[in-house]
């Protein structure tokens, strides 16, 4: 996407343009190009003429967006079921690209160190990589992203926390991304069990990267809490109760979460079992 990337004024501008892009190839290429240019220090953080981040990310005409309850679940023993799983993961990864870019574009004027933006552009780059890997796997199964309906709940979390960086960090990396640490190992094992090693290999890459992404979220959440003299676990619980609908569902991958800096003191009190 060189014609688009040549017009980029700053990191904030490039991130906002990538969120706004409706073409999937353009979005992922732009996300990775902006990340590379930022990491090689060829972009400033902000410009007075920057594009503003949109309230909703650009999307192609398909998939149709429906309520989460309308997304059909199928057995992973069938090819059709594995396609449905990959489609759901592709949708999650596409949203993750936009969520990482949006935190950069929307909070670029916040008093955060340069390394904060380094971390989130690393996340954006890797989420774009994940989306492309999952889409390639779908295409290898004679399917594609957009063939099935998908739900819109992930972007709702971004919209609800658009004015509060600490709340955004609590909800997106420390709830939504951390959920991937809980569910991916069992999905990975199931793919190996049914002999779909190509899908399992993709899930393995995603799982290892998601550990880093949760760690980036936890690092900066703790940073802000320390700067403001707040207890991180209690602050997390207050923000989640105010900004996230429903309790957190066990089982939790406590070891992977703790390795990323998200210890059980953060989330156990928010478990749906403890909130019922």
Automatic annotation (TrEMBL):
Coiled coil start-end: none
Highest taxon of source: Bacteria
One of the Pfam families matching this protein, by short name: DUF455
Gene3D superfamilies listed in its UniProt record: 1.20.1260.10
Cited InterPro entries: DUF455 (IPR007402), Ferritin-like (IPR012347), Ferritin-like_SF (IPR009078), UCP012318 (IPR011197)
PANTHER family hit by this protein: DUF455 DOMAIN-CONTAINING PROTEIN, SI:CH73-314G15.3
Name by which UniProt lists this protein: Uncharacterized ferritin-like protein
Organism for this UniProt entry: Hoeflea halophila
Lineage: Bacteria, Pseudomonadati, Pseudomonadota, Alphaproteobacteria, Hyphomicrobiales
